[in-house]
Amino acid sequence: MAKILVIDDELLIRTMLSEVIGSLGHEVVVKENLTEGLATAKETCFDVIYLDVLLPDGNGLESINDIRLASSCPELIIMTGHATPDDAEIAVRHGVWEYLRKPFTVEHIVRSLTRVLAFREQKRQQLKSSLKRDEIIGSSPSLMQALDLVAQAAVTSVNTLVQGKTGTGKELFSRAIHDNSSRSSKPFVALDCASFTETLLESHLFGHKKGAFTGATADREGVLQAADGGTLFLDEIGELPMQQQSAFLRVLETKRFRPVGATKEITSDFRLVVATNKDLREMVRLGLFREDLLYRLRGLSITLPPLRERKEDLSELVTWWLDKRADSHGQQVKVVSDDFMETIMAYDWPGNVREFIHSMDRACTTVGQESVLYSTHLPVELRVSVARAETGKQLGKKFDAPSATESFYSAQKQHPMGTSSPAQSVGGFVPQSLKEHRLTKEKEYIEGLLLHTNGDIKLAHTLAGVSRGHLYELMKKHGCSK
Asked: 479 lies in a domain?
């Protein structure tokens, strides 16, 4: 489904185009003047824009360049009831798809729109086929769907939100958007919003002047300024404090900001890509994220598939990693056995590609100088998880498989000296899985923490050593309230 904008002051034309375009299954937005039309084109991604020439507040032909600057680079169809050869030449020289004379028929609209959308799809597919996708390995349907959206994002300057679980490669996809865009020769500047305190984050975002605060011994350029002309990538955008969210929203609207301690504003022409593994809609509901900022961030959204949903890519990933490691270590490329592949195919990869790389690296280290990798070379935690899952299937039951590391630390917390627990009477022992036991203890901890802090969320998340958002997630998970 395409998204179409119609800018025309004639009600009959707006109604006709809306009905025809809607009947073809596309979404259509209509505006009756140039001012509203241009504002809408800048805020929303459109595939095609129908633009009238003579409008109450301006000439459509004179606004072609402004339309061209819209973030989605839409195809343009000029409409006029007063066609002239000179205007037709201007339109063609500015690269419009068609110079359309009024009145026009339904058949003409259908034919013209079908062609322009086919042309736009062809351009997108060409870009997709030649897409620079360094270290994004695989060709599964879910991965190709994500890369299709990367190709769409690359030809625009619209704000893009990349979502996905930890380890799915959010920064890699964000870099791919930049590398395939017209800004690829300019800087790609990344900032992890979860890595700094609120004060330091403000300084890293906006920069600061010497003497702005204790420790500011020199002027510092922020990432907003460093990304001028290029792409700004903000990772873990859900960790952006509310105060910075308000300030950053203004930056997105004006592309102007003031470094900490400065008296004058500066401008920056950056393209924004943000990433998160959190549910921003839920954070909005909890009052942890501004709804208006979320709307501005998700001009285009890309959700990355977890590795368990694209296991057909594992064989290609294995080959890629073994080749890469052999090159970096100056060694012969290792090969894998059938049982190695069977094991990694049976695993769910909760840590996604990041966990896969670490597991492959450990396996290659374990095998030493030998040339064949067997399943026994994989990490114990991985093999335990697979063994438990397979045994559960055979018994017709589901077993949750905590990692060996989790089991070890759980035991250490209960018995710091490493001694075994005293025997319990049959009547006093309630059998439950280790996962259920951990959930019970986690809930008791959250309830006790909230009681101890008298419901003070700021103090509670500080004492717990987790972010405010994480604490709210735990409270929701266990049904706890202030």
From this structure: yes
